[in-house]
Amino acid sequence: MKLTYYGHSCFSVFANGKHLLFDPFITPNELAKHINVDEIKADYIFISHAHYDHILDVERIAKNTGAKVLGNFEIYNWLLKNGIENAHPINPGGKFSFDFGTVKCVIAQHPSSFMDGTYGGIATGFVLTTVDGNFYYSGDTALTLDMKLIPKFTKLDFAVFPIGDGLTMGVEEAIEASKLVEVDKILGVHYDTFGFIKMDHEKALSDFKNANLNLYLPKIGDTIEI
Question: What are the residue boundaries of the Metallo-beta-lactamase domain, all occurrences included (predicted)?
């Protein structure tokens, strides 16, 4: 599958002819200032939780593209209140089928609130199955043994994990998470954007390699095959 990285935790996967975009936070990110948000394609947008660094560009992109936006029920209501009518609720344990394939919502261990401080519902991750491959985006999370349940239902081709530490898993925990979900291809996200999540890239790549895992750290704006 083709995957494009837009910085922080924002990435897009092209699967079954559809553009699947996750956690759009681009315009405030100095590291992604060369990205033109209005040129981003999206048929579906998935929101893992309500923190500003995961939702700030969702209104703009959704209104530009007409994409269907999925998030927990609190995020769903927030989307409707902000004029995004093509919204769809999904909570942990829930699964829906769309024209690209299926998406199952799973738990993440992380807080969630909107920019005004109101409750943003439970933080989540997503497991997607498509004819082109299957993958798991954990969202912002700590390492949790709940991840062991994922390969019982879905054989994954790759996973997307936060590796910046401090606010989420770091490299050590992401390596263990990779083993729990039984993948050897991992896209690392949620690092370098802020001073307190800056990361040693070479050490991260080396640590994953020593664990017989492949860590992908594409440059912002790059598209890779994974």
Answer: 7-190
